Amino acid sequence: MGRTRTYRAAEDCLSVRAAWLHFIGGLTQTEVAARLGVSSVKAHRLIMRAQKIGAVRVSVIGNIAECASLEKQFSDRYGLDYCEIVPEIDDTAMPLHELGVAGAAFLEREINSGQCSVIGIGNGRAIASLVSEIPHGNLSGISFVSMLGGLTRNFAANPFDVIHRLAEKTNSPSYAMPVPFFANTSADRDVLLAQRGVQEVLALANRADLILVGIGAVAAGANLVASHVVEPEEIMAVARAGGAGEMLGHFFDSAGQPMRTSLTDRALVPPLESLQGRRVVAIAGGGEKITPISAVLASGYLRGLITSESTARAILDKDYKREVSTSSDTVQTQVGVVA
């Protein structure tokens, strides 16, 4: 009896994975079969089984065993209140579609819970993908507020600033911060922050019940550079100083320690200390985000994370190797002292 139940549970999990790849990922049954290492007939039966057990509705529901295990590891290891890890269709690409679908479903659940009246929104490609997956509708009792300046250095619109698209899709009050993400100088930042409209938006951001953010890389190809928010040399200066990840204009080293940089001094964002203990949920994934996510997780500022399966495994592997290396260095130091 025990073996039968275990087999059924395993088949249910495999069925959910097959259904996710087929309905959300857009793979054909033949492609699903190749991905899971089963025959085409088996893939068809798995998809039909997922429908039969009620896992397929408008979207695919249910825990995928491997991802559920990873979610528990992340929650326990990094002190997260919420963690969702999604399988990706192509391990070599940025899983923006998968993250967008998962992020939109998470946001919908949060709105339906009735526990959020103000939701803070960061920027980046994953956040933009989330917004693109939100259906058009009329939301009542919810306000969205940008957590950062929505313009580039030359005051052009930031292509990854999504607050206006949220307003269009939800017909909800949405408040933008009509200033650059980073001012040209710290003196310019002080002048802009003194404006009454900016102060009002920041005050609303400080009341956000939930804050959704992206996580940025610290490299010449980072999204901050691609969107013309900062210059390549500016981000590389942070990298040379040990920067490993960025969240809402705040930079962290590989150990999760906040860094004081020239960019930080010019960022038009809520101060880092104002995020402590709040519901900050990051949506990020892909090979270039492994080190940045690891750094931000180590900072302790995140309460939740939505990422991809391969990203999650790589982060755990990276952190494990770092711990082993640190432990080895400690042992060698102790032996040297004894000698």
TrEMBL record:
What domain of life is recorded for the organism?
A: Bacteria
Q: Which organism is it from?
A: Kozakia baliensis
Family designation: Belongs to the SorC transcriptional regulatory family.
Sugar-binding domain sequence ranges: 64-316
Pfam families the UniProt entry points to: Sugar-bind
- State the Gene Ontology terms under molecular function: carbohydrate binding; DNA binding
Q: Which Gene3D superfamilies match?
A: 3.40.50.1360, Winged helix-like DNA-binding domain superfamily/Winged helix DNA-binding domain
Q: Does the keyword Transcription regulation apply?
A: yes
UniProt keywords, alphabetically? DNA-binding, Transcription, Transcription regulation
Annotated membrane-spanning segments are none
Lineage of the source organism? Bacteria, Pseudomonadati, Pseudomonadota, Alphaproteobacteria, Acetobacterales
Name this polypeptide is given: DNA-binding transcriptional regulator
